[in-house]
Every structure is written in structure tokens, then in C-alpha cells.
Amino acid sequence: MRAPKSQRNRSKKGIHPRADLLLRLQLESNPEALCLVRAVVQCAAGVVRFQESDSRAIVRSVDEALANVIRHAYKGRGDLPIALTCRRLWSGTDAATPCGLEVVVTDSGVSANPKKLQGRSLDDLRPGGLGLHFMKQSMDVVEFSRKNGKNLLRMVKYLAPSTPEEKPEGE
Known about the structure:
By secondary structure, this protein is an alpha+beta fold. It has helices at residues 5-8, 34-47, 52-73, 131-138; strands at 18-28, 81-90, 98-107, 141-147, 150-158. Helix 2 (34-47) packs antiparallel against helix 3 (52-73) and helix 3 packs antiparallel against helix 4.
């Protein structure tokens, strides 16, 4: 379930919710490290209280992002630095309840061509090339930038508003 549009558009309008650092990882572009990162990101999503399906979507998006850095930005080299940060986002209206998770992946690899970051059509049936599509479908914000010679990928997933559990009639 996607967050309400008002939450998804916060960062686009320059309004950022308060955030606190949950974790900062420094890793090498070694594909063997991805299983460790998946486990840690799964735990971070649990700390923010995401439902299991949203937690899996976040983990898949981070895994895809890191695989793309290794494959494309670093051309398969396994010894180059990648930084990953996860921040818990807090709503400005309810400081006691987290409102989402921000994940930033930073690398020093080849900068991505913005035209190639559009992803291909889902009608083009062939293996590969849909990772960006799935990341954009799973996350509420997916932003690419390049600063000081580094690629930054910022992804945000907002918590869906909780709904009261329906009680059976007669209770």
C-alpha cells in the first residue's frame, strides 16, 4: 500500500520530515556482501514498523540498487566503496510515531546516464532491465543525483496510515 500523496510529495516540495540515523554501512562492491546488507535493511524496516510486504519491497529495492552500482557504476569490480545509510523519518505532527524510512546509496563509480534511468517498457519481454521500474513501484521516492564526484540514490518509503482493525458484528 502506498503512502498518502501528501507524504509522498513532502521531499519534492522541500519539506523534509525529521530524521534520525538508524545505520551507516561502508562496504565494498562485493556481491557476497549483499546478503548481509539485505538482513540489516530488513531489521531497519522492522524497527520502523513496516508491514512484512513493505519490508520485503524495501529490501528488494536496496538489493537492486546495490547490484546496479556493482554491475554498472563499478563495471563488476568487487573492491570499490559503497556507502549506505538508513534514516527513520518522523512526522512533524506526531513526533512519537515514525512515518517512514529513507535509504541513501552513495558510490564513486561512473555516473549514470539520465536517459538510461527511465527503465524500459514492461511490454518489452526479456530478462533484466526492470530493476528501476520495480524500485519506483515499491518506493514512494526514488531520486538520483551526482555531487562532488559521487552518485547518490535516495529512496524513501512511507508507512501506510494504520487503520483500526474491524471487529466482527456483535462485539
